């Protein structure tokens, strides 16, 4: 087998993989009563961690909310329409950006170690960089959930400030997305809504 490092041409994934990751994948709103183990959740991250980020900064942080007590605390911060499904989901991830990601720059991008000090002095730029890149990683996280054989239910309907007070008060983490994870129930999916045609989206210069 030719390694990616030595090959100029990459093989496209097959149709079943495209369907699982993209064309047949839906946001799940209900899940089967089948547990998701901590090891399976770690497997999701083992895929998601390879997402590209600016200068390899990697600001995304993931809190898996699994204990009944922690789940109740999270559900209290969800919008009304998201509470029941978040309480019932086999696994739930809170995705957050780390405003102190720059502390890890000497480890993840050693040749730019000097940026740690410059970002320390620029909170506004640091938070903007963290948010933008964490959103990029979040897209990969959802694809990783699907690649690991699960359905994902990403949600933005929650009180982010409340979640941060409950779970991240002693850190610079800032929540921005909650993702329910599990095997889909029979009634998990709503009918797919339309996608824009390419003439409204694509341009070539």
TrEMBL record:
List the signal peptide residues: none
Sorted keywords for this record are: Oxidoreductase
Q: Where is the Nitroreductase domain?
A: 30-183
Cross-referenced Gene3D superfamilies, in alphabetical order?
NADH Oxidase
UniProt xrefs under SUPFAM superfamilies: FMN-dependent nitroreductase-like
User: Can you provide one Gene Ontology molecular function annotated for this UniProt record?
Assistant: 3-hydroxypropionate dehydrogenase (NADP+) activity
Per the UniProt record, which EC number(s) apply here? 1.1.1.298
Q: What is this protein called?
A: Malonic semialdehyde reductase
Give the species: Galbitalea soli
């Amino acid at each position: 087998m030719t390694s990616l490092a030595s090959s100029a041409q990459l093989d496209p994934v097959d149709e079943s993989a495209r369907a699982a990751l993209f064309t047949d994948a839906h946001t799940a709103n209900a899940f089967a009563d089948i547990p998701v183990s901590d090891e399976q959740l770690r497997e999701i991250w083992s895929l998601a961690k390879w997402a590209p980020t600016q200068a390899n900064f990697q600001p995304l942080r993931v809190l898996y909310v699994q204990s009944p007590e922690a789940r109740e605390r999270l559900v209290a911060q969800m919008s009304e329409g998201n509470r029941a499904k978040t309480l019932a989901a086999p696994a739930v991830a809170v995705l957050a950006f780390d405003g102190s990601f720059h502390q890890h720059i000497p480890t993840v991008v050693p040749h730019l170690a000097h940026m740690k000090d410059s970002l320390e002095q620029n909170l506004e730029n640091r938070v903007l960089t963290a948010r933008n890149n964490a959103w990029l990683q979040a897209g990969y996280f959802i694809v990783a959930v699907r690649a690991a054989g699960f359905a994902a239910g990403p949600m933005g309907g929650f009180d982010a400030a409340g979640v941060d007070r409950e779970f991240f008060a002693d850190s610079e983490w800032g929540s921005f997305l909650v993702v329910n994870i599990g095997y889909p129930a029979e009634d998990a999916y709503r009918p797919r809504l339309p996608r824009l045609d390419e003439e409204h989206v694509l341009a070539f210069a």
